[in-house]
Amino acid sequence: MSRTVVVTVKPGSRKGPLVETADDGSLTIFVREPANEGKATEAAARLLAEHLGVARSAVTLTAGATSRVKRFRVD
């Protein structure tokens, strides 16, 4: 069973790596990697997998490759 997780990514953050959950349940992922060549997206996927307790291979980007708001499918 897979589910879709929508996250906001903050690349180049000194605060990261960190996952914050807001009161409404939305996730914000802070990563140190810059927003170029997919580095921040890959770091966000790794951190999301760790946060959810699943393997990195279970997390797939489905939308938002060049946006700060991204959709990941988690298997």
Outline:
This protein has one helix spanning 39-52, and strands at 3-10, 18-21, 27-30, 59-63, 69-74. The protein is of the alpha+beta class and 75 residues long. It is globular.
Characterization of the model:
- Helix content is 19%, strand content 36%.
- It is an alpha+beta fold and 75 residues long.
- It has a single domain, classed as Conserved Hypothetical Protein Mth637, Chain: A, CATH 3.30.1200.
- The chain has a five-stranded mixed sheet with strand order 2-3-1-5-4, with helices on one face.
- The longest helix is centred in the middle third of the chain and has 14 residues.
Number of alpha- plus pi-helical segments: 1
The CATH class assignment is: Alpha Beta
What's the rounded overall pLDDT mean?
94
- Indicate the CATH architecture: 2-Layer Sandwich
Which term fits the overall shape? globular
What number of domains? Answer: 1
β-strand amount: 35-45%
Number of strands: 5
Distance between the termini: 6 Å
H/E element order: EEEHEE
Task: Give the structural class.
Answer: alpha+beta
Identify the quaternary structure here.
single chain
Task: For the largest sheet, list the strands in their spatial order.
Answer: 2-3-1-5-4
CATH topology, anyone? Conserved Hypothetical Protein Mth637, Chain: A
CATH superfamily: YggU-like
Family: Belongs to the UPF0235 family.
InterPro entries: DUF167, YggU-like_sf
Pfam family, one: DUF167
